[in-house]
Amino acid sequence: MKRFEFIQPTSLDEALAAWEPGAAWLGGGTNLVDLMKTGAMQPVKVIDITRLPGLAEIETLAEGGVRIGALVRNSDLANDADIASRFPMVSEALLAGASGQLRNAATVGGNLMQRTRCAYFQDPQAACNRRDPGAGCDAREAGAGQAVLGWSEICIATNPSDFCVPLAALDAIVEVRGPDGAREIPMAEFHLLPGDTPERETALSPGELIVALRLPPEAEGFAANARYLKVRDRTSYAFAMTSAAAALRIENGRIAEARLALGAVAATPWRVTEAEALLAGQTPDAALFARAAEAALAGATPSGDNAWKIDLARRTAIRALEMAAAGTPAQMPALPASPFGSTAGDLAHA
Amino acid sequence: MPDTLDPHIRFGSNSGQPATRRDGVAKVTGTATFAADNTPEGLLYAVFAPAAIARGRVTSLDTAAAEAHPGVTHVLTPQNRPPLQGDPSDKPTMFSFRFEALQDDTVRYAEQPIALVVGETLEAATEGARLLSPHYETEKPRVGIDDAEPYGFEADAFGKPANTVHGDPDAGHGSAATSLDVTYETAPQYHNAMETHAVVATWDGDHLTLDMPSQALSMSCAGFAHYFGIPAENVTVRSPYLGGGFGSKAIPTGPYVLAILAARMTGRPVKMMLTRQQMFGPVGHRGQTRQRLRLGADADGKLTVIDHEGISATSTFDTFIEPAANASQGIYAAGALRSTHRAVALDVGTPGPMRAPGEASGSAALECAMDEMAEALGMDPLDFRLKNYAETEPGTGKPYSSKALRECYAQGAERFGWAKRPLQPGQMRDEHGHLVGWGMGTAFFPCPMFMADARAALRADGTALFETSAADMGQGAWTSLAQIAADSLGLPLDKVEFRAGHSGLPDGGVAGGSGHTATAGNALHTAGGDVVRQLGEIAAADPASSLHGAGNASFVARDGRLYIDGDDSRSDAFADILSRLGNAEIAGSGSASRDPDMAKQYAMNAHGAVFAEVRIDPDLCQMRVTRLVGAFAAGRIINPRLAESQLFGGMIWGISFALHEEARHDPRRGHIVNSDLAGYHVPVNADVHGLEVISVHEDDPHVNALGIKGVGEIGITGTVGAIGNAIWHASGKRIRRFPIRVEDLIRE
Amino acid sequence: MSPSISLTLNGAKRDVALDDPRVTLLDLLRERLALPGTKKGCDRGQCGACTVLVNGRRVNSCLTLAATLDGAEITTIEGLAAGDDLHPVQAAFIENDAFQCGYCTPGQIMSAVGLIAEDRAGEDLERIREGMSGNICRCAAYHGITLAVRQATRGSAGIKKDDAA
């Protein structure tokens, strides 16, 4: 690990003043410290923000919705009974991520800032335009397909966050403080597609710091029919191959409003408003969900040897919609949203 | 010898008991000392810089930057590395492979050490290694099995399996009514013991002390002594606990040699612990294989031939061939058998033995091919195996020393409910709509013995000390060997002090090949027997003893007393015999190895049957093993609690082989892209359900005096095939490449 | 730049001078404070061998910079037993043969203690398996681990070190 200056400010103003180019904010450290070890990140200054006051609260807002401090730990948010009942897929997504230990350390703000898990990004010996603009993309050259949506020839990385997928679906708002004061960034604008500038991953300006996250009042309307589904190649402690957050507001047997976002398919959580529009006003059934999923993946193209992933993402979206239509389980948070999350019962010979 | 000694007479009450681990408290309280837990005074830390490419040359290293980093004390490169007294290409012991220890600037595989940085702190040495910022001249790497031409080789050394033919395979093909010709592939796998390879090296003059995990302590001393030009007795290896071995911790490797060299150069103790990423190269792996299986069967379902051709990857600079095709030699009564091996030289680290080397990969392919043949014949897979049950060893016709495989099939099938299995695939679903499939495979593992020595001493206070340089890598040597030792003197377990894990003790042999308990155990048993014999002689000659005059009788030790064999009326207490001797201690010694006559007469193997249930989400194609029943017959089980754990572990390695493990190479640079535990998947707790082990009773009077066969590796065999077959049975899709992945089912 | 931190380490106050902010809690314990019970398996948060309790919560000590921990209360495997009385999780691990080589065991045990304190899994085996999935065991002692955690969750009296052996 490269040597760095370590400071531990005790006020937000002090922290913001301490920022300089090459500095990094340190929250739970689960991603930053790891990348400092591989050498993918080499901050000259590490600013430990965990001592900043007032950033670790979860508050219900008078106008509805909830405000979650940037330093709330993932496990505390996931296990908050109020969050689980009002925004069940947020809990479900958080608990599908990482491990109990990592969730105890990782913060809400850090989860939003999580870097891609592309092996070539993590490895400083590899060419990576995201880490080192203009260096090239070894992942693309190797044919190791990753994203299937929104990627460019410059970068094919995906965003690994589970948490961000329901946040995108629920129109979360990111509250930011920086040298120029406070501002808010809608989730849909927070993460950036690579285009020609993959090094620009978020809408944050240099020196800006996430202080909180808001889930708007409307997000509560989906509590009865909201699921996060994560497909992975071992049952737990693995990043998603594909994932989907599906939320339906069902009135009189019809979908009054739908939200759908996909994970692990693009450099950003992938909200699919086209599919949502297609679902709105309809009676939920298998054919409808298939059409919606088709629309969700309409623009998908493989970035390497991963055409199968488009198919898997489509199937994941369908299943997530089916699960949402079937209703949020009584016990939340449910077991991680694997199709095998519930105990398998007796055999039925077909 | 073994034939004349009834093991039951001399066998006491400790063996067969499910004692908890004697090292249990140390391991749950964090006081069990693993190699890297040692931090001697004056310690320096060494970190090697690994090659980022698989083939080429290092053209520059920024040694100035590394040396300038605060805390860095030394930087070793091929330019300034002190000489070794033995060449890294030498083979001082049977299990030696050429290693890379900065001989030159050539890069032969990714993660090869290309420099060593030594520092006052781990942080300094780590950053120093990074600051070397190597540049390379890169050649196109050969990392896939098609990247080089297969070649044949002479079976003239360890790691080079012979080709074997029994009967007339061509005639077998010709006479087959049903023929099968299928090719299976297995991925490169890396041991990844949770404890990465680690050493603390301390020199005192020309004496070297190594705290390091070792599956073969005495052999390691001989190896390191050779490279450093000192007598083997000047090397001490302390290895009380290994944090997992799985075959990777028996052999001197380049990183160890560099750390020892650094310690000699600096005159200070040096600690080196490999990073997880560095485990993917210089310390062995299971080479990838491609296996063609051609099976023939007559109209009755009898196999006319098993023809197994294996291609296995090795490195460009040494040869270890995963002997996959050998797995077809000993199991089924085919009219003819042919196993051939060829190698492909790739730009990878030299493979080595990894838990069930050959058997795991070979059994995976064979058991799936057997399933395919059963399908082609319209037979139940278990019936097909029973139809081809080998009553004597196929090919050689030798009788088995013991073989309860039929009982394994029966008990496993009964417990699993195999009789209810529909013949056709895709017939079963659970209430969630998941596809359900059942598959099975035969488990099989040879039971070799190595050579081991042991010492026993009966003390005046009635306790005993037993010593052998055995290694406990988790299989439970501290416990099961002590149980054997206690029985050899007829003492309760708590009266026995057992010393192991130190090379200064009598040679405990190799903890490998599932043969350690049998080998070291029989040596301890013999050492205890030597003490009993001496006690008998002393007592018989002592007028004060009730055994006086019984000089021609044989003696039995039980409950701290010596009895005349077959005559319980005459006995004398150990304590009394010893006290009359002036409280002397009686020392005995023993050794063990395979009886060559028995080996000539009998085929010796452990057997088993594994039944797997897999559920598959028909849309998302996620697979989960929901039940795994293994029935195993492996001779005498010394400690059923620990044996069950070993078998569970092996079966879960089978899940891992079937569904998870695969090192993926970058085609351009040749390095392994997923060289960490986030990318190289092994099962986590949530992947493991419904495991059951049935221990099938087996008495084996021939395999060794104690009748022990070993259980360390057999659990993987059979399991991989059973899972592959269950996936087919659930989905109707036959995937002929391991691991079977979600995308394989989606693509099909 | 050279922070000195004050810790409560296994119940005892300790002032630790840190000359290097790069030192992780894991390396601090192992290399500088003579507490090598906590193990390094991957050093990247991918295996759980380094799990300790920080302020009562299980975390990966390999990803925790020591400099951030001023004032923290840390419990490692060495601090779990009360004298000769094993912690119920430790005793249950021995009884259920929940380990083989023992290398991941300190992390497994600290993780289990953390999991039980979180009170999310109860005695549900499926939830225990999920809750313990952040701790890889290459020997694959998962069957015993799951049973041990359930047994300890049910609660068992302290067992003497001598009894357990």
UniProtKB/TrEMBL annotation, chain A:
GO molecular function: FAD binding; oxidoreductase activity
Gene3D superfamilies for the chain: 3.30.465.10, CO dehydrogenase flavoprotein, C-terminal domain, Uridine Diphospho-n-acetylenolpyruvylglucosamine Reductase, domain 2
Domain of life of the native organism: Bacteria
Signal peptide range in chain numbering: none
FAD-binding PCMH-type domain location: 1-220
Record key words, sorted: FAD, Flavoprotein
Protein name in the entry: FAD-binding molybdopterin dehydrogenase
UniProt organism field: Roseivivax halodurans JCM 10272
Automatic annotation (TrEMBL), chain B:
Example GO molecular function: iron ion binding
Matching Pfam families: Ald_Xan_dh_C (PF01315), MoCoBD_1 (PF02738), MoCoBD_2 (PF20256)
Signal peptide start and end residues: none
Region (Disordered): 1-23
Domain Aldehyde oxidase/xanthine dehydrogenase a/b hammerhead: 29-140
Matches recorded under InterPro entries: Ald_Oxase/Xan_DH_a/b (IPR000674), Ald_Oxase/Xan_DH_a/b_sf (IPR036856), Ald_Oxase/xanthine_DH-like (IPR016208), AldOxase/xan_DH_MoCoBD1 (IPR008274), AldOxase/xan_DH_MoCoBD2 (IPR046867), AldOxase/xan_DH_Mopterin-bd_sf (IPR037165)
PANTHER family: DEHYDROGENASE, XANTHINE DEHYDROGENASE
Protein's name according to its UniProt entry: Dehydrogenase
Organism: Roseivivax halodurans JCM 10272
UniProtKB/TrEMBL annotation, chain C:
Keyword Hydrolase: no
GO molecular function: 2 iron, 2 sulfur cluster binding; metal ion binding; oxidoreductase activity, acting on the aldehyde or oxo group of donors
Domain named 2Fe-2S ferredoxin-type: residues: 3-80
Keywords: 2Fe-2S, Iron, Iron-sulfur, Metal-binding, Oxidoreductase
Alphabetized InterPro entries for the sequence: 2Fe-2S-bd, 2Fe-2S-bd_dom_sf, 2Fe-2S_ferredoxin-like_sf, 2Fe-2S_ferredoxin-type, 2Fe2S_fd_BS, Aldehyde_Oxdr_Iron-Sulfur, Beta-grasp_dom_sf
UniProt key word Zinc: no
Name of the molecule in the record: (2Fe-2S)-binding protein
Species of origin: Roseivivax halodurans JCM 10272
